[in-house]
């Protein structure tokens, strides 16, 4: 056992098993071809990191999709799959397409993409809340839940159209041969329609989340105030499976879990209906969730263009959404985007990495982007100084804890988004430095789920899929390929014009 494995095993009481492939994983159509692999450390060949990342994804592949980690998260998760597809495309564009197709096959009639698609061969007690809690095919019938597959009833951030576009450009020939985009475009369009029409609970033109799990950063301090109004479900009424795998001091508290369970129960018992009258027990407009929706809307415009339409209306909508995001969530005095509590109509003054993610938007006003970069490199996030990766929460904040879930540690997906944002806004040297730190930390941490932002110490599960996938994506991001990053993220949409 190496040092990192020992550390994590000590912290969590278990190490996620990562199957080691003896032969190069993935053979067949569109397989390994690291033609543009960039070396991050001349002493360690990038190829070995590439191979180990590929082995993680190979070990976590179920045949039709990829689990985030074998032990802690044994089903398919929505935004995980989008990030996984972004990395998987470098190994097997076919698998990357299948990853997204499997998820979209579980889409509900009202357009929502569920946050979990359950694998029926996994025992019910392996993860909580399990299918018998969500009861999607019965409780979700009016909302159009599928009959043949069991899912959760809430959603996760809409990274999917962005992922679909990136998967397409990795092998346009295969994509066209399989009619990948034409098959999934209507589903992605329905997904965005659901978010923009059924989830504009604040009436300001952007989407709300109705559960902390929907935003993906479950335990962020931004949820504390809106969650405090929720009566927790009694601790005896459910059994947490996450504590079988994760250290209790790193995971959300039982009290918070009780509130998560109450919110999900109430939503289920209301048939997963979305009232637009502001009565949801929890309704928050989040900057990262909406920034990802906007980035995906730009991607949907590109997909539409590829399919023969102009895509102009979608780009225009993405720009209107960007303006609404700034209007609703930007705090110029603090130089941050904040969450808005829809119930009180007030910003929640907690600095989280979510408030930096809008940096990935191509038409963010120039001074807003510059201010965000200053905040990122200032005392609250410490990049370029005390931290090696962007922490999930304010280093100076009252709730900061470098190891507790979403209250300080650094995650690879949010760092990848920030790295993209830096590149998009011309901060190439800083992006390059962050990329190097991400690759190194992924390597030394054993592709950990998350890490201590100061030391890079591994936390949570090892062999975590999106960590491996985004490592692959960063390895393929050779400096000469940077222009395609800009193109992929939609800056060229209207010549990258900014207000
Ligand atoms: C609840 C799977 C998911 C991620 C989330 C992360 C965590 C689940 C949990 O794991 O959430 O959805 O049980 O804590 O917070 O971002 O998608 O990796």
Automatic annotation (TrEMBL):
Q: Name one Pfam family in it.
A: MGH1-like_GH
Biased composition range(s): Polar residues: 1-11
Is-annotated flag, keyword Hydrolase? yes
Q: Does Methyltransferase appear among the keywords?
A: no
Q: For the Mannosylglycerate hydrolase MGH1-like glycoside hydrolase domain, which residue ranges apply? A: 73-467
Could you name the domain of life of the organism this protein comes from? Bacteria
Keyword annotations from UniProtKB, A to Z? Glycosidase, Hydrolase
Q: Which GO terms describe its biological process?
A: oligosaccharide metabolic process; protein N-linked glycosylation
Which stretches does the entry tag as region Disordered?
A: 1-34
GO molecular function term, any single one? Glc3Man9GlcNAc2 oligosaccharide glucosidase activity
- Report the PANTHER family cross-referenced here: MANNOSYL-OLIGOSACCHARIDE GLUCOSIDASE
**Recorded family membership:** Belongs to the glycosyl hydrolase 63 family.
Tell me the protein's name. Answer: Mannosylglycerate hydrolase MGH1-like glycoside hydrolase domain-containing protein
What is the originating organism of this protein?
Streptomyces liliifuscus
């Amino acid at each position: 056992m190496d040092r990192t494995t020992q550390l994590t095993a000590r912290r969590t009481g278990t190490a996620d098993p990562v199957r080691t492939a003896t032969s190069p994983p993935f053979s067949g159509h569109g397989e390994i071809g690291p033609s543009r692999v960039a070396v991050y450390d001349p002493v360690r060949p990038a190829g070995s990191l590439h191979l180990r990342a590929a082995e993680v994804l190979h070990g976590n592949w179920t045949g039709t999709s990829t689990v985030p980690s074998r032990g802690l998260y044994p089903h398919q998760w929505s935004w995980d799959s989008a990030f996984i597809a972004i990395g998987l495309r470098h190994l097997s564009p076919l698998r990357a397409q299948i990853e997204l197709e499997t998820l979209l096959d579980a889409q509900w009639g009202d357009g929502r993409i569920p946050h979990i698609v359950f694998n029926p061969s996994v025992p019910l007690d392996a993860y909580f809340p399990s299918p018998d809690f969500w009861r999607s095919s019965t409780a979700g019938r009016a909302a159009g839940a599928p009959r043949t597959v069991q899912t959760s009833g809430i959603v996760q951030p809409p990274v999917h159209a962005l992922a679909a576009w990136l998967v397409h450009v990795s092998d346009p020939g295969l994509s066209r041969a399989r009619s990948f985009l034409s098959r999934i475009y209507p589903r992605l369009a329905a997904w965005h329609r659901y978010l923009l029409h059924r989830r504009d609970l604040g009436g300001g033109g952007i989407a709300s989340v109705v559960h902390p799990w929907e935003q993906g950063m479950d335990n962020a301090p931004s949820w504390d105030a809106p969650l405090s109004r929720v009566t927790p479900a009694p601790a005896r009424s459910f059994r947490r499976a996450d504590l079988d795998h994760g250290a209790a001091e790193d995971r959300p508290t039982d009290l918070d879990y009780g509130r998560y369970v109450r919110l999900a129960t109430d939503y289920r018992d209301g048939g997963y209906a979305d009232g637009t009258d502001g009565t949801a027990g929890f309704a928050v407009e989040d900057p990262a969730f909406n920034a990802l929706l906007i980035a995906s809307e730009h991607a949907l415009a590109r997909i539409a263009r590829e399919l023969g339409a102009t895509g102009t209306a979608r780009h225009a909508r993405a720009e209107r959404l960007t303006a609404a995001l700034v209007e609703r969530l930007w705090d110029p005095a603090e130089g941050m985007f904040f969450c808005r509590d829809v119930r009180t109509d007030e910003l929640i003054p907690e600095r989280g990495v979510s408030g930096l993610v809008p940096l990935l938007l191509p038409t963010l006003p120039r001074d807003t982007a510059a201010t965000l970069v200053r905040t990122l490199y200032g005392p609250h996030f410490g990049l370029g100084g005390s931290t090696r990766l962007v922490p999930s929460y304010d280093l100076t904040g009252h709730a900061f804890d470098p190891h507790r879930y979403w209250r300080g540690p650094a995650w690879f997906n949010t760092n990848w988004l920030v790295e993209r944002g830096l590149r998009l806004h011309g901060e190439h040297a800083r992006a390059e430095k962050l990329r190097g730190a991400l690759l190194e930390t992924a390597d030394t941490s054993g592709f950990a789920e998350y890490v201590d932002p100061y030391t890079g110490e591994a936390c949570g599960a090892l062999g975590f899929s999106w960590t491996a996938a985004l490592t692959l994506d960063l390895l393929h991001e050779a400096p000469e390929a940077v222009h395609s990053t800009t193109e992929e993220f939609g800056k060229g949409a209207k010549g990258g014009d900014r207000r």
